[in-house]
Prior knowledge:
It is globular and about 65 Å long. The protein has helices spanning about 1-15, 15-35, 40-55, 60-85, 95-105, 110-140, 145-160, 170-180, 210-225, 250-270, 275-290, 305-325, 330-345, 350-355, 355-380, 380-390, 395-410, 415-435, 440-460, 475-500; strands spanning about 185, 195. It has a two-stranded antiparallel ribbon with strand order 1-2. Strand 1 (about 185) and strand 2 form a beta hairpin. The protein is an all-alpha fold and about 500 residues long. It has 20 helices and two strands. About 70% of the residues lie in helices and about 0% in strands.
Amino acid sequence: MDALSSLADGFAVALTFQNVLLALLGCFLGTIFGALPGLGPSNGVAILIPLAFTLGLPATPALILLTSVYYGAMYGGRISSILLNIPGDEPALMTTLDGYPMAQQGKAGEALALSGIASFVGSFFATWGLVFLAPQLVKVALLFGPAEYFALFTLAFATLGGIASRNQAKAAFSAALGVGIAMIGVDAQTGVPRFAFGEVHLYDGIDFLVAIVGLFAVSEVFIFLEHRGEEAHAEDASKLVNRVTAPLSMLRKTAGTMGRSTVLGFLAGVLPGAGASLGSFIAYSVEKRVSDRKGTFGKGDPRGVAAPEAGNNAAAGGALVPMLALGVPGSGTTAVLLAMLLALNITPGPLLFQSNPDVVWGLIAALFIGNIILLIMNIPLVSLFVRVLLVPPKYLMPAVAMIAFVGVYGISGSTFDLVVMVLFGLGGWLLRKLDVPLVPVILGVLLGGQMEVNLRRELTISNGDWSALVDSWLSITLWGLAIVGFILPIIVGSFFRTNVGKGRSRESDDPD
């Protein structure tokens, strides 16, 4: 009952004119980011972080804006999947398998309406899961000492490559690169500059917001420049959309599918590093195994649309559980949200629920409001979002570049940070060319410092005894999960990649 009481307080925080307006704006922009192939939720949130700072938003409104973008992008990813057979982001890959055949059969409107309702069901019940599970996880996290936190950060690094990762070596290299970047600056314990090369601007380290905007937003602009604006876009997708409603018989047929997929997606989202992609893959695979007795999956079966959409949206809600309760992101986009929290001087973790209850519960209440806004927005206005697909990238990318430069300069007022941002953009472009995932770099930059602090603290307490890192059942469990999480994609990753089919699947693609 404490959770419900806190949630009621959260609604009092979230239900202000400004916060509802920001949720509406975030949902609208997020749906557009999700609908545009190639951008996805991580890029969408990264691009809008500077905007949140430029607007001078306090912590709660800023988080409401960005999490609404996150949820909106999860909704929007399905639009291009169904109409064009091009997923807006990786979790929407599975939606193409039955969504596009439905569109070819003249049922595009039904598929879009059904996917919108399935997304709502997945997100809505996952947010209730967040309400009840996160406070319980906090109680466990209060038992953590430095050794357990070090093991927890290792678990996050080991699993963020994702279950569909093809090359764990690249994920490990990417994470090591991020930790190396986090080491830049004056060592807080000894006062000795590290990797600064005499440059005083580097004594304070690399601002992770500059790194995130550079790696995601600016690298996207470089990719656009490389292809000279020749990215494919919809030409007549809007003509495919007929009446956007789902028949009652279709909803009855898919109700069980949505329920099963929501549970599976939420559990997948709670696992560090699994994210919405795993939720989508598992939901579709299990539903196909349970329900596909006539071999209709892959040929336009509505259950093949409802399952991945409920699964990936439930996973998005589940991914917020470890981020808020433990300070460890459950997915790529929550890693970017974690950076926003840290930039606002809010430390996620067990004490967050005690020290900033207005922020946490206001955010959770805003997720409920955002879900209702998204459902209302995505059924009648889906034709509008389809038209966004007609906008050529040559008009979008200059806007992305402008937001990145103006936003970062607005935050720091430093031209040096602009140079660093461009360098990160070039680095992000190079890593994408080499098919190296970007999210572990961000995670390394974010958590590298805390990981080092906890390692040093534990070694100081134990007089340099390294076995102290594995002297409790909690740390042993976390180390075990980290090892399994790192090895599992090597063994079962091919199964998920096979199910992805002909959609895009690159190591460096947006994991969320």
